[in-house]
């Protein structure tokens, strides 16, 4: 993978031009999520929230490993049509956590997980092989669980504020 950040990659292109490019973006998304969750965990005072965030961070590393294995196995790696997958739908700017309050950080995590969930669902729908479809469907399911967790946390914050 080249040295472009996800945001730079998004700004440089709208559509993917190769399966490797799709995987590079997916791997970058997983690493950004890993970093987000470890950074958030460091800021948490409640140990139970810290544990959940660190568990999510570990899952993101497992996702990255699955994607790295896929990239190494090029015979498996093909799509019916990946050109209809628009990178701008899934990659957004990542703000620094330094200036964010907890609610803003949870909102950002919720949106990142939603984007990852939609991205993997679209990849699963475009995958040629059943194995590839299953891998992306699994990843989509994991991201959906993360999204639902952050939605619940965000709603709880909203309720406490009202």
* Poorly predicted runs: 9-13
Q: Which class in CATH terms?
A: Mainly Alpha
Category from helices, strands and their pairing: mainly alpha
Mind telling me the C-alpha Rg? Answer: 16 Å
Instruction: Count every helix, treating DSSP H or I runs of 4 or more residues as helices.
Output: 5
What does this molecule look like?
The chain is mostly helical and 162 residues long. The chain has a single domain (6-161), classed as Ferritin, core subunit, four-helix bundle (Ferritin, Up-down Bundle). It contains 5 helices and no strands. The protein has helices at 6-12, 19-43, 47-72, 102-126, 130-161. Helix 2 (19-43) packs antiparallel against helix 4 (102-126). The longest helix is centred in the C-terminal third of the chain and has 32 residues, at 130-161. The chain starts with 5 loop residues before the first helix and ends with a helix.
């Amino acid at each position: 993978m080249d040295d472009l950040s996800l945001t730079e990659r998004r700004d440089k292109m709208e559509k993917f031009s190769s399966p490797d490019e799709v995987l590079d973006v997916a791997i970058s998304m997983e690493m950004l999520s890993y970093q987000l969750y470890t950074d958030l965990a460091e800021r948490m005072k409640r140990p139970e929230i810290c544990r959940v965030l660190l568990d999510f961070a570990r899952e993101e590393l497992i996702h990255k490993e699955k994607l790295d294995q896929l990239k190494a196995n090029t015979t498996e790696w093909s799509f019916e049509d990946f050109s209809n997958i628009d990178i701008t739908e899934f990659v957004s700017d990542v703000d620094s956590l330094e200036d964010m309050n907890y609610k803003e950080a949870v909102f950002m995590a919720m949106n990142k997980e939603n984007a990852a969930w939609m991205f993997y669902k679209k990849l699963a729908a475009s995958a040629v092989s059943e194995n590839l479809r299953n891998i992306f469907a699994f990843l989509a399911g994991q991201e959906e669980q993360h999204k639902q967790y952050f939605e619940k946390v965000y709603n709880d914050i909203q309720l406490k504020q009202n």
